[in-house]
């Protein structure tokens, strides 16, 4: 079975500051890992994903995440926050070679202050 | 471009009504999913389907049923809507055998009065 823990249901940063959203996962098999973003009243949009290979993955809008197996983490970062980054972010995990179901974290709402 | 559409963005129904939420994808994906999203709870899987006429229960199937008569369409049915089914409902699809990236529709915000 898999699970995801997102630390911090709300994160607030100033415009131009570093964004760090934390995600820890549990999986008994090699995982696929995802970050999705949801803007108000919209569906989820994929930011980035880790499948295999390079552990540092780059996504859209300047975001990146690093898969750290030893820490079972997949934290999302962006060097400089923009007002347009204000949204809710979801981390998700699924099993490589297994069911195609995703298990989601409970989400982190990011606020960007001017 | 990949597209998942849902029949309504906003829906208001009364307790006891039968409610149909429709989802259509144009990507020839085999697998389709229905989630509900509630504040502080994230996304929870209601049902999924890996082929026409095939379905499996997710984590919270109680009070819901589904129908998949055609590959592109996956319907979520609330047989007798209740106020605790007021929520955002999201549909997603995925091509079987890929790396499990799901494509999401815009969501239907359902209010049951």
Can you characterise this structure?
The complex is a heterodimer of chains A (114) and B (113). By secondary structure, chain A is an all-beta fold. Chain A has no helices and eleven strands. In chain A, strands 2, 4, 5, 9, 10 and 11 form a six-stranded mixed sheet that branches. In chain A, strands 1-3-8-7-6 form a five-stranded antiparallel sheet, with no helix packed on it. The mean pLDDT of chain A is 92. With 113 residues, chain B is mostly beta strands. Helix content of chain B is 0%, strand content 57%. Chain B contains no helices and eleven strands. Chain B has strands at residues 4-6, 10-13, 19-25, 31-38, 42-51, 54-57, 64-70, 73-78, 87-94, 103-104, 108-112. Classes of the chains: A mainly beta (114), B mainly beta (113). Chain A binds chain B through residues 9, 32, 34, 36, 41-46, 49, 51, 90, 94, 100-102, 104-107, and chain B through 4, 9, 31, 33, 40-45, 48, 50, 58, 90, 92, 94, 96, 99-107, 109.
Q: Roughly what percent helix of chain B?
A: under 10%
Report the end-to-end length of chain A measured between terminal Cα atoms: 41 Å
Order of helices and strands of chain A: EEEEEEEEEEE
- Poorly predicted regions of chain B are none
The ordered H/E elements of chain B are: EEEEEEEEEEE
The total strand number of chain B stands at 11
Helix and strand content put the structural class of chain A at mainly beta
Structural class call of chain B reads: mainly beta
The quaternary organization reads as heterodimer
Main beta sheet of chain A: 6 strands, mixed
Q: Helix tally of chain A?
A: 0
């Amino acid at each position: 079975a898999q699970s995801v823990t997102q630390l911090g249901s709300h994160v607030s940063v100033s415009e131009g500051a570093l964004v760090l959203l934390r995600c820890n996962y549990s999986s008994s098999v090699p995982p696929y890992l995802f970050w999705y973003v949801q803007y108000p009243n919209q569906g989820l949009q994929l930011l980035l994903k880790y499948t295999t290979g390079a552990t540092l993955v780059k996504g859209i809008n300047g975001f990146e995440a690093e898969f750290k197996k030893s820490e079972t983490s997949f934290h999302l970062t962006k060097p400089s926050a923009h007002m347009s980054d204000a949204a809710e972010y979801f981390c998700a995990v699924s099993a490589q070679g297994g069911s195609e179901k995703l298990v989601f974290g409970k989400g982190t709402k990011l606020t960007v202050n001017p | 471009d990949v597209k998942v559409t849902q029949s309504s963005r906003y829906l208001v129904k009364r307790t006891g009504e039968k409610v149909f939420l429709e989802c259509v994808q144009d990507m020839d994906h085999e697998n389709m999913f229905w989630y509900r999203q509630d504040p502080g709870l994230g996304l929870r899987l209601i049902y999924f389907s890996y082929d026409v006429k095939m379905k499996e229960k997710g984590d919270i199937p109680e009070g819901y049923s589904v129908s998949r008569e055609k590959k592109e369409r996956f319907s979520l049915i609330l047989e007798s809507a209740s106020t605790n089914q007021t929520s955002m409902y999201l549909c997603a699809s995925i091509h079987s055998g890929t790396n499990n990236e799901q494509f999401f529709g815009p969501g239907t915000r359902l209010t049951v009065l």
